[in-house]
Structure formats: structure tokens, C-alpha cells
Amino acid sequence: MFGGLVIPVNSPHFRKSGSRHVMSDLGANEVENGVDEGVLSTAENDLKSATIPINATAMKLSPMLLWRFKVIFFLVWGFVCCKIGLDSVMRMNANKQDLFLYEAFLYYNPLLLVTLMVWLWGINLWFFTQGSVNYPKIFDLDQNHLTHREVWKFATWMTIIVPTSLTAYIYLYSHGEVSYAASQPVLLYAAVVMVLIFPIDVFYFSSRYYFLRTLWHIVFPLQAISFADFFLADILTSMAKVFSDLERSVCRMVHQQVATIAWLEADSVCGSHSAAIPLALVLPYLFRLNQCLRQYKDTGEKTALLNALKYSTSVPVVFLSALKYHVLPERWTNLYRPLWLLSSVVNSLYSFYWDVTRDWDLSGFTRIFKFSKPHSLSHLLHGRRWVFFWVIGSNLVLRCTWTYKLSAHLRHNHLTVFTIAALEIFRRFQWIFFRIENEWNKMNSKSHIQLSVDDLSTEGEKLLHSNNHTV
């Protein structure tokens, strides 16, 4: 007895593996004197049940307490990063602040947007789980696929690491440590690449391999297009800003122009006049266009050609906008800007129409008024009419604003561009719910049709067997 706590002699914490039970002298004498073994067994179990809750309570924290600790940690960490970053910016020359912040957003904007997308994807998976949508079957995932909790854990680490690196970049530059500041985005990008391609079975190896394999299929569609292939390619079209900023960031890193005073020289090499910027913006749409052509080749469906036409309408938007840096201002104003506006309207309206009628299967908006939902996700997510109006209206508005971001000549207001890019990711987040539900309903209808055909064939065999038996 220690401090009033009785520890049973037979406790498994005091026995080695494979050893025999050790009984106290009192227990042994009582057994020899004819005391019932069942009484001792009952007393021993009572002692164990009395000690186990104490040990479990002492060793295990409450989930609510742990959650509160995490929230407090994030709030304190966010306050510290904001405080350090703001103080560091105020130390700079007023003439350099805007240029420096523009450079900082250029390097860290892609990873911040990716972090936002990962958080929202975790929310998507959580809704699918609550609605009993078998998303592993839709994407043909193995048993080791990431759950929404694991996705959120990965997003949490990204949320900590990326802003911390950004804060260190601003702090080091404002205090004169230019070389150390320049190393921050380089190290961060290198770490992200290493985590993705690390060939050892750690850091969710099967999921990383699945992701890289799907990217390979998107870039080189040498086989039949799966649902996961064009689903990820559609998400990449909403992250064209990430591709554009990645190209400029890597260009500056290669030319050793990170955190330097030579912004004008860097802009001449990796800036506004670079032809790589519109190419990076249009690249995800070209990937998706190529997939549609491959799908038409495999299936012969004319719908694939209409879908390819939709993605082709983004090409004039990007390149007509980029012409501003390569033609005279009068020619841009009188000729190319009206063409750019026209192509933007066509692209936005065509994309909006395809989202509603094809990807979501809300033809004629009939499902706004007919709530015959075949799956529980519909009741969980959008079982009310106002949700349909919100999603359709916001999708139209955000489709039009996303055209703003596709325009290369409108990218200098980095805060506005970042906001629009984040809103486009939010639009894609909404799109995913309806797109997955539509695909899941199609799979269920196909399975029901297959079951009906199997039942008919079984009944026919029974009738034939019955006739033969009668004969």
C-alpha cells in the first residue's frame, strides 16, 4: 500500500511476460484452509477494476481538453507570427514595403492556396463520410487511403510551417540578414518536393504515390481516362494562379534573385513580359482539353468534344490578356481589350452552363423544385431550396471573377488577386460536393440496372429449369 492506493500483487504491471501468477501469503494460506477460490478471484477482480480507472485517467487526456489546448496554441502562434511580421515590415523603408510584400506573396502564395485546398478537401471527405458516400470506390482507392482526419492533420502541419517560413523570411530581411532570408522559400520548396517524392514507406507513401501517378496520367494521358484523372485535372484548373506563381518563383530562385534589391532586373527576366506566365496559366486547361480529346477517341461520345470546347475557350482569355505587354497601348485598347472581354464572357457562361447541367446534372434546374434525392448526402448537404440558389448564384459570380485572375495584365494587385484565387478554390470546394454526388448516383443506378438484369436472367434460368423438369 503506497499513499492509500492498493496495488494488487497480481497486477500485470509487475509481472514479466510468460511468468506465473504470484499470490500473497495470506491468499495462499486461505486457499489451503479451504477458502473458496471464487471469493479470492472476485476480490482480485474488484481490486483490478478499482486501479485501472485511476491509471487510465492519469495517463489519458480528455479529447476536449486536448482540442482546447490545440486551439489556444494556434491562437498564440498566429498572434506571434502576425506581431513579428508586422513589426518587421514597419522597420523597412516605406518605398520598399509594397515591393517586398509583393515578392513575399509571390513565393508563399502558391503554398498558402494549396494549404487552403487541403483543408477544404478534408471537409469534403468528412461530408462524404457522414453521407455514407463510398468515395474510395469512386476514386478506386486502396485500403490505405487518407481519411478526413489524416488530411486535416497534414493541413495543420502546412498551416504551421508555411506562415512560419513567411514570418522568418520577412523578419530576416528586415534585420539585414538577406542571405538567410533568401534561403527560406528555397528550403521550403525543397522540403515540399522531398516529401512528395520520398521513396520510402513513410509520410503516407501509398497516397503520395497515388497522387503522383494521377498527375502523371494528367500530363501524359496515354491510357483510358479514369474519374480520378479528370477530377484532379479539374481541380488544377482552379489553381492556375498556383502554376503561374510557381513558375515565377522558381525562375527567380534559379537566377538567384530572391530577396534582392534588383526587382527591376528580376522583373525583366521572370516578370510581366515573360511568355512563360500565360503558358503556366493555360497549362491546366490544356491538360484537361487533352483528356477530353482522349476520352472522345476511346468512347466516341460527342459530349467529350463539347467539353473540350469549353476548356478551349480559356485559351483566348489568357493570351489576349498577355498581349498588353507586347503591343502598343492604343492597339490594346481599341482591338485586343474588346476581344478579351468577349472571350471572358463566353468562357464564364459556357463554364457555368457546364457545371450546372453536366457536372451537377441539374438540367433545367428541375432538382431545385423536386427533392427526390436518391442518397442521404443530398439530405445532409443540400436538402433545402436556398442551398441550390446559393450554389448556382455564387458559382456564376465566381466564374466571372475567376476570369479576372486568368488575365495576366491584372495580376499586380497581389491582395486582390490572392482573394480572387482563394474564392475560386472555395467555388471548386462547393463544386466537389455536387460532382461527387452526381457520380455516386450514376454508379448506384448502374449497379441497380446490373442487378435487375442479373435477376431477370436468374428468373429465366429458373423457368427453363422448371419447364425441363416438368417435361
Automatic annotation (TrEMBL):
Subcellular location: Membrane
InterPro entries: EXS_C
Domain EXS positions: 268-468
Transmembrane regions: 65-86, 106-128, 154-174, 186-206
Major location category of this protein: membrane
GO cellular component: cytoplasm; membrane
Keywords: Membrane, Transmembrane, Transmembrane helix
Pfam families assigned: EXS
Membrane topology: Multi-pass membrane protein
The protein's name in its UniProt record: EXS domain-containing protein
